[in-house]
Amino acid sequence: MAGARPPDARVAVARVAVARVAVERGAVASRSDAKLLVVRALLPLLAAVTGFIGANRIVVALRPWPAEYGLAAKVAHLAEHAADYDAVVVGSSATYYGLRPRTLETDLAARGHKLRLFNLGVGGMGSYEQVHLVRWLLARARPRIVFYEEPRFDPLLWYPDIKNPRYVHWHDTRSTLSALRGLAFVDAPPSYKAEAYAATWHGDWKLATALEHVELWALRATALGAGPRIAAHALGLAPPLSPTPEQLAAEAGWLDIGAEPDAGALRQHERFRANPAAWEATVAGIRAQNEGRVDLAATFDRRAFDELRALFTDKGVEVVWYATPRSIGDPLLATLAAEGHLTPYLAYNRPELASELFEAEVRWDANHLDAAGAERFSRRFARDVADLLDARREGAAARGPAEGPAEGPAEGRR
Amino acid sequence: MLFVELRFLPFFALVLLVHWALRAHTARKLWLLAASYVFYGAWDWRFLGLIIGSTVLDWVAGACIYNARGDRPQQRFWMTVSLVGNLGVLGFYKYWDFFAESAAQFTAWLGMPISAPVLNLILPVGISFYTFQTLSYSLDIYRGQLAPAKRPLDLALFVAFFPQLVAGPIVLAREFLPQLAEDRRWARDVDVKLALALFFIGFVKKSCIADNVAPLADAVFAAPGLVSTADAWLGLCAFVVQIYGDFSGYSDMAIATALLLGYRLPRNFDHPYLARSVAEFWTRWHITLGRWFRDYLYIPLGGNRGTALRTRANLMSTMAVSGLWHGASWTMVLWGIFHGTFLVLERTRVLGWVTRLPLALGALYTTLVWTVSMAFFRAESLADTRALLARAFVPSAASEGTFIGPSWAWPLLVCLAVVHVATRAGRLVERWTSLPAPVFGFTLGALVALALPWVSLRPAPYLYFAF
To answer: Is A131 exposed, middle or buried (0-12, 13-18, 19+ CB in 10 A)?
Structure first.
């Protein structure tokens, strides 16, 4: 055939055509080029990820604890002085203003129990924040006893501004996953948020809350928006911590709520004092609420609770659960206590058992005791703890020295 | 949808992947057009009709103008149709209430009160920008500088191209349509390092700088007659930083986004606060708008070809219209006239000498003029402008209970000024993007991690979206 090319020439022409098409489409001509291309793209990407992670770790490590309601001040104090304490009381503002370590120490010493206590109560403490704080504490110190206020594992984000530093701070991966799991045990959102959740594109409040937790996790992981706080802290421009180191050292974390009340606290105080009849009704309501019982399988994240207990056990720290004399009863805690999950448990949220703490004269407002109330609460708490420790000591003596819980000098246990 | 919103990331990732995965050029353009409409529709889909209407109008007008070559009256007719159509929509949405209120005030002052209805219309985002773009298409055909787009798709994409749709840069048809005519190639048309660097810089300008200084400006402009002299200046300077970070940041991200798709958008800012004079400033600030007004208003008015007096009048009227473009209010018109005045004075012996000042002094003078002009630009009313300028120029103490500037504010502003100088003097962006890819990647990753903590959790809206 005229003009016909030999087979090898046709193959060569076809190869050239294929190569042209490949070049036209921006493809690479050979396998080695492809490898080179991948390496060229991959190496900068890996370098970018490495750079990001390295710088991010530094930034995250520099981020200070939130200063609100004494949190940063107490953490800073414990970071230096944790070894000075044998026991730590961890809880909310009811603990912060209600339990005075100096009184506790004195009364316990009078009963033969030498314990140095620190009040790690923080205003507005949330369930998972409390666990996060305890994890931080136990990673640095090994107190003999941790008194733990109300283990309820509430995953709801109650504050309107969810991006507040407190919420962001506790949302590490572990706590976030735990809170996400905890959503399975809640059946309604905060009532004031229900409408906003319903207005989301999916209309599912649980999904909306879960996404908020994920957002908070992302904010923590990237330190998004934390720059001004980090810089102020690093440059020493942050406002002085409150309480001051001197106050913390003097009172071991306790603060008289009436000493320097802010505007909100004063408003609560005045409202409380203005209507004594309302308080009587509230106390009656507390009793009724405490009579209630809940289905633990449906409303309580047992796994989170077991993990928390395991944390104490693994660290060799004894935990004592307690409830504070607040303005609402708690069927959940009552059920947990009734079914023997909270052992040992000191229940001060029951007016019939701790009536002296529910007298209006010793209360600052519905949820907080004043200085006189704190003195009463601390003495009652000391008495009950001393009874508990006495019982342990007696039990240990009965079982013999090898089996009993250690209660020797604190230094020996650290 | 905004570039700094989280949802933009998956949106753009999808657009980018599909764009480069498609092989046919037309398919890519169709995809980009669809993405652009989605991008705009995410803000308010109802106003998509305006963009499409504007596109159709100029497609028809452009074709008719071109086909009527040699028939100037016919061309003039179609050009008028385009002008009336485009400026009519812009005028209706943006200026109706302004003119209605102004007319009512004026007739009331004359003692013959006539009230025109105030409609409180929503201003469609980006209308000032895409209207100018479509106009540039018809005007360039009218002037014989451009042939009409070969396909409606090209024109539609030119008008709606999402990187520059809502806040510029204002791209001219003659620089964008040729890009649409040619297939895009990743290796040839995309400078990945430059695009990533520009996007990062734009993001930092907007989210880390502008949004963080915005509360300072907001606080001062909320009580302009009550702040101290120092805080009046602080508020003005904070706004100077905010508006630059906000707008140039958006432009940087727009240019970067387009670049990753293989398209080149014109530069919109070039270190404006280092200009030696107000005249030079306007060649460095919102460059594409200045170019538009120069090409389509100042030069047609006669430019500087007539007498000195005529040139000055042209300058003043161009700047007054520019002010009105920025916002439908008398403060904006005065802002434009204020700048026009300096442009005129710099052409006379009164201020002609400033162009011969050393760079530092010239930049100081220019920035001072710009800073003072922000009292017109940002204030809600002429009374607020007057009150703030009185506080700024007459030593005053803060009234009780008003904003007091934080101690970190001035050091921060000074640091930002140093960075502004250093990026230009040290050619930092050029040096950064010329690093080997792995080193560039590492520094970019580290800088992103270092920048994220400075992102404001309460972002201020884009200032130029209101224009």
So the answer is: buried
Mutation pick from B182, B452, B454 vs chain A, by most beta carbons of A within 10 Å, is B452
Instruction: Give the integer Cα–Cα distance in Å for B365 and B334.
Output: 20
User: How far, CA to CA in Å, does A183 sit from each of A159, A212, B302?
Assistant: 17, 12, 71
Is residue B212 less than 8 Å (CB to CB) from chain A? yes
Report how many Cβ contacts below 8 Å link chain A to chain B: 84
**CB–CB of B449 and A40 under 8 A?**
no
Which DSSP string corresponds to B147-173? Answer: PPPSSHHHHHHHHH-HHHHTT-----H
Q: Which two tokens stand for residue A221?
A: 């992981």
Instruction: Tell the burial category of A363 from Cβ atoms under 10 Å away from its Cβ (0-12, 13-18, 19+).
Output: buried
Distance of alpha carbon B447 from alpha carbon A340, whole angstroms: 53
Q: What is the DSSP string of A323-382?
A: E---SS--HHHHHHHHTT-SSSEEE-S-TTT-GGGG-GGGBSSSS-B-HHHHHHHHHHHH
- CB-based contact B444 A45, cutoff 8 Å: no
- A141 to each of A147, A184, A304, how far by Cα in Å? 15, 33, 22
User: Is A223 in Cβ contact with B445 (below 8 Å)?
Assistant: no
Residues of B marked as catalytic = 326
- CA-based nearest residue to A118, from A93, A167, A82, A152: A82
Yes or no: say if B385 and B239 are a contact pair by the CB < 8 Å rule.
no
Residue of A nearest to B196 (CA): A48
| Total H helices, total E strands in chain A | 19, 5
B450: contact with A, CB 8 A cutoff: yes
Domain ranges for chain B, please list them: 8-183, 192-276+357-460
Q: Output the tens digit of pLDDT for each of chain A's 414 residues.
A: 344 445 555 555 555 554 454 444 444 444 555 566 666 788 899 999 999 999 999 999 999 999 888 899 999 999 999 999 999 999 999 999 999 999 999 999 999 999 999 999 999 899 999 999 999 999 999 999 999 999 989 999 998 888 899 999 999 999 999 999 999 999 999 999 999 999 998 999 999 999 999 999 999 999 998 998 898 888 888 888 888 999 999 999 999 999 888 888 999 999 999 988 899 899 999 988 888 899 999 999 999 999 999 999 999 999 999 999 989 888 999 999 999 998 899 999 999 889 999 999 999 999 999 999 999 999 999 999 999 999 988 877 776 544 333 333 333 332
What is the ipTM for the molecules in this complex?
A: 0.81
Contact A324, A91 (CB under 8 A): yes
Contact B441 A48 (CB under 8 A): yes
Q: What are phi and psi of A400, to 5 degrees?
A: 105, 160
Which residue among B437, B443, B449 sits closest to A43, beta carbon to beta carbon? Answer: B437
Tokens of A348: 């001060």
Q: What is the pTM of this model?
A: 0.81
| Min distance B284 CA to chain A CA atoms (Å) | 31
